[in-house]
Design a protein that fits this description.
Layout: E1 8-12, H1 16-28, E2 33-37, H2 41-49, E3 55-56, H3 59-65, E4 68-71, H4 75-88, E5 94-97, H5 103-110, H6 114-119, E6 120-121, E7 123-125, E8 146-149, H7 157-169, E9 173-176, H8 179-205, H9 210-216, H10 219-224, H11 232-241, H12 243-265, H13 269-291, E10 301-308, E11 315-318, H14 324-335, E12 338-344, H15 350-361, E13 365-370, E14 373-379, E15 391-392, H16 397-408, E16 413-417, H17 428-436, E17 440-442, E18 451-454, E19 462-464, H18 470-480, E20 486-490, H19 498-505, E21 511-513, E22 518-522, E23 531-533, H20 538-550, E24 555-562, H21 569-576, E25 580-589, E26 592-600, H22 621-629, E27 634-637, H23 650-660, E28 665-668, E29 671-675, E30 682-685, H24 690-699, E31 707-710, H25 715-718, H26 722-728, E32 733-739
Parallel strand pairs: 1-2, 1-4, 2-3, 4-5, 5-6, 8-9, 11-24, 12-23, 15-16, 19-20, 30-31
Antiparallel strand pairs: 7-8, 10-31, 10-32, 12-14, 13-14, 16-18, 17-18, 20-22, 21-22, 24-26, 25-26, 27-29, 28-29
Helix pairs in contact: 4-5, 8-12, 14-15, 14-19, 16-18, 17-18, 20-22, 20-24, 22-23, 22-24
The structure holds shikimate-3-phosphate (S3P).
């Protein structure tokens, strides 16, 4: 059904949650038809008289006559009703629930015919209140709150998408969670706090003179015990149904309590202080990150700096995080494909996570990431929903430009925005060719974000790119998937081709001509879900390739690195400077070449960088400049003006830093000349650019005195865990958080 509001909704249980769902849907669109059943006649009559529901039905009618049935009952009751619902429900009816424990319900669901299982979507709004019953229901209960959807192996992604939309209409944010994790996680984050609230009241009641005690109880007691005002029947149901996970959680909690008892008995003030401040920091961080609250912290530290002791030797066998370019593309293509896409090796850095959040906002259910694994329940090419808020692309030019192409051809409008750096980066390179296809995108006068993208039908176009940009090519390919006719893009020099390879992996035909320089797609096809194993990012590996190369006595192995020939410029250039990098165990993983890289120390000599290598090493120049500074003679780069419009002006940022370290450089509008020399220490500004910060960390290995690098918070955009991995292989770098 294309318009959500033409669905007939049935609500089984018109208490706080069921009533709030009905109210929320009615206030979004009063025309929606809602029927309800409950054992509480009074609640039903009130809902009907207030116009919150259209009809009171029997359970059988409810199941037979609706398209979407929401079971808003406690878990035991819900589980008991499953067989009955399976017997009477219409064969197209999508059924969902709201219970806080899933194990019993899913046991019942698994006993039912496959077609029922496929249509059953476990759901759980994290949005209750200590109030209960219909009288407390409100249309806003779920606005800006999280709702967890818990897909199981039999689920039909289309049923999942419908339930996702139901919660979107109520203003909720939808997160996916693995079924196996749900009850365990909820035992810790919700069930335990409820039990503790009940327990503290119970403990006080048990005291002699409890009346007196209550008289003196103040805000702390009221705050802490708030949850004990919740519905007792529902919560005893939950504790019992989730007993297995509850017992584990309680055991570990009781252990903690015993520990705290010991600290207090021992008068261990300093240990207590440490434990309590740690808990405070964690809670403040949680409020800020996940609930968007402003918290008063003792230190409002936001500036992250790196400090480096000079010297070190680089040794080890490591795997760097997943490829950033491929991670973005996995989310994008997985989301618009039909079926379930499983991804491993996903980069859990801020950039890719922002892309993930953007697609969640557009109605895609995504489970994870957890240890680089995620599952994307594709909504198909026409299944994205209009974002309700501007899509925040953080620091990522790739996400902004690729999404620009995809969104320009949707049936809805959207706004794309980014951080301070991204909001200064040029977007004409995608706006202009998209305009040739009929797109309407508004930007600032300087052609920078925010971008207002008015979605519409596009016609295919033939476009000769003036710069060798994979972002522009990918943007146009994504628009081309929808445009009428054949979109043909010519690149002036080969640039990364992950989009093309992944499209083929999703069964979409991409044609290459003229040595791969002409790429074309026909609009109108569809994508079929696939499995994606994302290799380690060669752009992150590059820092370690240079680290081992410039440091006498070093030897390192980097595992499972993506060695797509459109990305291996760094290996080609370092080897032509005299480096010793060997490519071992080459294989192909899902259309992308992957290998282990072995690198050891070698003396380098300066070179003139061949122009054809520039797009193949475009992100690696900051660290290549560090290698150049350690080489004998001059290294000259020309024809690389693109470096001036990356996350920072990388020519200027690197030149300034290298000069601080005592290296002679000359800059040009399109490049740089670096004279090899010796590094002294100093204070370097990374200008908030992740790759500049990491490049200067590598310089520390050859510096005579300490180096301090400021403004390093953005390292998390592409390389979470960089400091840890650097330390692990012997690079003596520390992260210092400074108050501003
Ligand atoms: C990227 C393409 C390159 C690169 C960027 C990632 C991509 O940008 O610098 O980090 O994933 O397509 P350009 O397309 O601007 O060269």
């Amino acid at each position: 059904m294309s318009d959500f509001y033409s669905n007939r909704i049935a609500i089984l249980g018109i208490g706080l949650i069921g009533g709030s769902i009905a109210r929320g849907l009615k206030s979004a669109n009063n025309d929606i038809f809602i029927s309800a059943y409950d054992q509480n006649d009074e609640a039903l009559r009130q809902a009907l008289s207030e116009g919150v529901i259209n009809q009171i039905s029997t359970l059988e009618e409810l199941a037979r006559e609706s398209n979407i049935l929401v079971i808003a009952l406690p878990p035991i009751t819900a589980a008991q009703l499953i067989p009955k619902l399976a017997a009477v429900a219409d064969k197209h009816c999508i059924i969902t629930d709201v219970a806080s424990v899933k194990s019993k319900i899913m046991e019942a669901v698994k006993e039912q015919p496959l077609s029922f299982q496929q249509r059953f979507v476990p759901g759980h709004p994290i949005a209750g209140s200590e109030e209960s019953e219909f009288k407390s229901s409100t249309s806003e209960l779920f606005r800006d709150r999280n709702v967890i959807l818990i897909p199981h192996t039999k689920i039909n992604p289309k049923a999942l998408a419908v339930v996702n939309e139901l919660w979107r209409k109520l203003g909720a944010n939808i997160l996916g969670m693995e079924l196996a994790k749900h009850d365990e996680v909820l035992a810790m984050t919700s069930h335990l706090p409820h039990l503790l609230a009940y327990t503290i009241v119970d403990a006080l009641v048990g005291q002699q003179q409890s009346e007196d005690i209550f008289r003196y109880a103040a805000g702390g007691f009221a705050d802490f015990s708030r949850l004990a005002s919740s519905n007792a029947k529902m919560w005893s149901d939950i504790f019992v149904t989730n007993s297995e996970a509850m017992i584990l959680t309680l055991d570990s909690y009781i252990e903690r309590l015993q520990e705290f008892k010991k600290y207090i008995a021992n008068q261990d003030h300093s240990l207590l202080m440490r434990k309590l401040s740690n808990a405070k920091d964690v809670r403040d961080d949680f409020l800020q990150k996940y609930l968007g609250n402003k918290v008063t912290t003792q230190s409002t530290a936001t500036n992250i700096n790196f400090t480096l002791a000079p010297g070190g030797v680089v040794k080890g066998d490591i795997r760097v995080p997943g490829d950033k370019s491929i991670s973005h593309r996995a989310i994008i293509l997985g989301s618009i494909s039909d079926g379930v896409t499983k991804v491993s090796g996903f980069l859990q850095g801020e950039d890719a996570l922002n892309t993930l959040a953007a697609f969640q906002e557009m109605g895609v259910t995504i489970v994870g990431p957890s240890n680089g694994k995620l599952t994307i329940y594709g909504v198909g090419k026409e299944g994205l929903k209009a974002p309700r808020v501007p899509l925040y692309m953080g620091n990522s030019g790739t996400a902004m430009r690729l999404l620009c192409g995809l969104l320009a051809v949707q049936k809805f409008d959207s706004v794309l925005t980014g951080d301070e750096s991204l909001n200064q980066r040029p977007m004409a390179r995608v706006i202009e060719p998209l305009a040739l296809m009929g797109a309407k995108i508004e930007s600032t006068e300087k052609n920078t974000p925010p971008l207002l993208v008015s979605g519409r039908e596009l016609k295919a176009a033939e476009y000769d790119m003036t710069i060798a940009s994979a972002q522009v090519k990918s943007c146009l390919l994504l628009a081309g998937l929808y445009a009428k006719g054949e979109t043909i893009i010519t690149e002036p020099a080969p640039c990364r081709d992950h989009t093309e390879r992944m499209l083929e992996g999703f069964g979409y035909v991409v044609t290459k001509q003229h040595d791969g320089r002409k790429t074309s797609v026909h609009g109108g096809g569809s994508l079929k879900a696939a499995s994606i194993d994302i290799p380690a990012d060669i752009s992150s590996a590059a820092f370690f390739l240079v680290a081992a190369t410039i440091t006498p006595g070093s030897k390192l192995i980097l595992r499972h690195v993506g060695v797509n020939p459109t990305r291996t410029g760094i290996i080609n250039l370092l080897n032509s400077m005299g480096a010793n990098i060997q490519i071992l165990n080459e294989t192909n993983v899902g259309g992308e070449p992957v290998a282990d890289l072995q690198v050891s120390y070698a003396a380098l000599r300066g070179i003139e960088i061949p122009k054809d290598q520039i797009p193949l090493a475009i992100d690696e120049f900051p660290v290549l400049f560090i290698a150049a500074a350690c080489a004998e003679g001059e290294t000259i780069l020309r024809g690389a003006s693109e470096l001036r419009v990356k996350e920072s002006d990388r020519i200027e940022a690197m030149a300034t830093g290298l000069e601080t370290l005592g290296i002679s450089v000359e800059t040009f509008s399109d490049g740089i000349c670096i004279e090899g020399g010796n590094f002294q220490g100093g204070v370097i500004d990374s200008f908030g650019d992740h790759r500049i910060a990491m490049a200067f960390v590598i310089a520390g290995l050859r510096a005579s005195t300490p180096i301090k690098i400021s403004n390093c918070a953005n390292v998390g955009t592409s390389f979470p865990g960089f400091i840890c991995l650097a330390n692990k292989v012997g690079i003596p770098v520390n992260q210092v958080t400074e108050e501003q």
